[in-house]
Amino acid sequence: MEQATIKAGNQSSPSQKRQLLKIYWWTLSFIKPYKGLFVTSLFLGLMIASAQIVIPKFIQMLVDDVLPSNDLLRYREILAVLSGVITIVIIATILKYVTDRKVQEWVAGDMQIGVFQKMRSLGYSFYEKYPVGEIYSLFHTEVEAIQKINRQYLPTIVQYTISFAVTFTFMAMLNWKLSLVFIPGILIYYLIGPYFERKSAEYAKKLADSHAELNKKQYDSISAMMELRAYGQEKWNLDQLLKQDQKTAAINVIFFKLINYRGAFRRVAVYFSGILMFVSGYYLVSKGLLTIGEFIAFTILYYKVMFDLTILITNLTEQRVLLHQTIRLYSFMELAPDVEEIEHPEELSQVRGGIEFRNIRFGYTSSSDVVKNINLSIQPGEKVALVGTSGHGKSSLIKLLARFYDPSEGTVYLDNVNLTQLSLKQLRESIGYVFQETYLYGDTIKENIQFGNENATDEDIIVAAKAASAHEFIIALPEGYDTVIGERGNKLSGGQRQRIAIARMILKNPRIIVLDEATSALDHENEAEVKKALDQLFKGRTTIAVAHRISTIQHFDKIVVVENGEIAEVGTYDSLLERRGAFYQLLMGEKRSAANT
Ligand SMILES: Nc1ncnc2c1ncn2[C@@H]1O[C@H](COP(=O)(O)OP(=O)(O)OP(=O)(O)O)[C@@H](O)[C@H]1O
């Protein structure tokens, strides 16, 4: 199956800036619940910036008034006020740090949970469409990028904007004519600066894409370790990883070169205006239009303004780089789930397990149908097997039952209620899926069974394990039910894993059981054990099984043959054999291939 990638949109389009702004607004929206604390932080920032500019003012007074007159009393007064101001700055800085930190950590937590909840809401179809490596990269790289925006860039940008505004105002008030020296510096910067900005943003985007691809490749390489070994393809895989790694490194080098050029150019602009300031300042002092104290104070303020401006521009640019990294995450957050619950869903007082597919048509894309003209009625407690050639739509049909997907046409009913009207929670609790490969956690056997019902007691777990023919092999293990079974249960055999999954399902106690090729990969010995366990599980429940081996479904109430996405035949095992139609052909085919092996 071809997998999609989360689109980052057309980055060269003119709407790019608007999109980045939208994304930035979205990242800030996480602060909303903490706006009280955020405003407190702004206020503290303003206090710090205002207090800091008082210092050059005092130096000016010291040089112009106190030193020439040798007025010691005034000198002490100035020192006392200066100490007071510095104390205020220190206290306000500590308070601001604590406030910012609280907001940042809460926002970071909310963000992580928000992304996780979104992932959940997108459901099964999302996991089928997108590669796990890419989803992993959302958490790994993109969430961290947004967290960095809120943790690092936002507080810095806010603080230095305030500081820049306050200092510049004060400097202009001190001598507005001398403040004009800024203009040539800014003009010089804007001659070439934006070019580097654009270029570095372009490379930031390339870097983000390359990182995502590298993450994906690393994930695939870890997941496919066994296959890579078995096929002797480790070198091929390593070469692929290396190539991607080198590509990322090359982009990184260009990106940092651009950042460096941009920084160097900015420094040229700052120093150019600085020289202009000294020349103009000397002229104004020599003409008696500026005192020496004012000139010193102005120089301090000038470098403070330049310092603030430099930090501001650097942070704004770096933040833009990070915003490019978050485009994919934003696009992901904008994805609409394929299946949604209605606002006031219906709850059945009791699920009996009657199912009906009426006039169903479904395809993964709008251009092609995978199943069509499906009309099938299943009574509560009935056992139905779906058989047919591989790739003809059996699994797709049963995905519609738990609303992993909705049909493009037609309706699926549970106990005569349209599935779209039902509570998703109740629907999914009523259905137990047993797949060929059930996910087992790397925890103990006990916990893996308890996963079916978190309230189950130790006795319930043992009863379920016995019913699933798993108890014997579990107690034979050195640590019995407390045995840790390794990642994905890899310390157990396929049949043992299946029986744990069945025990889990017995604990879950769903009204409907859906089996997808559950026994196709088992050897005969294992199959007999698993079959015994399944018979226990089926008791009193509606069962739909996708079966590869026809010999395993003789005792089913109804057999449905699916061909080219449509129902070709329905009947009991014997009646279908008698018909000598599609089912008979399948059985003959199976017998022939068994004889050949
Ligand atoms: N998530 C998906 N996205 C796109 N196409 C899919 C997806 N899952 C299955 N298909 C396609 O739908 C068709 C039917 O697949 P399905 O798995 O339903 O068949 P099946 O009869 O259950 O096959 P098998 O017996 O081999 O499991 C196939 O062509 C398959 O490639």
UniProtKB/TrEMBL annotation:
Annotated transmembrane regions: 36-55, 75-95, 153-172, 178-196, 268-285, 291-313
Membrane topology category: Multi-pass membrane protein
Domain ABC transmembrane type-1: start-end pairs: 39-318
GO cellular component: plasma membrane
Subcellular localization: Cell membrane
The keyword Hydrolase appears for this protein: no
MF terms in GO: ABC-type oligopeptide transporter activity; ATP binding; ATP hydrolysis activity
Domain ABC transporter: 355-589
Swiss-Prot/TrEMBL keywords: ATP-binding, Membrane, Nucleotide-binding, Transmembrane, Transmembrane helix
InterPro entries in the cross-refs: AAA+_ATPase, ABC1_TM_dom, ABC1_TM_sf, ABC_transporter-like_ATP-bd, ABC_transporter-like_CS, P-loop_NTPase, Type_1_exporter
PANTHER family reported for this sequence: ATP-BINDING CASSETTE SUB-FAMILY B MEMBER 10, MITOCHONDRIAL, ATP-DEPENDENT PERMEASE MDL1, MITOCHONDRIAL
Protein family membership: Belongs to the ABC transporter superfamily.
Protein name (database record): ABC transporter ATP-binding protein
Lineage of origin: Bacteria, Bacillati, Bacillota, Bacilli, Bacillales
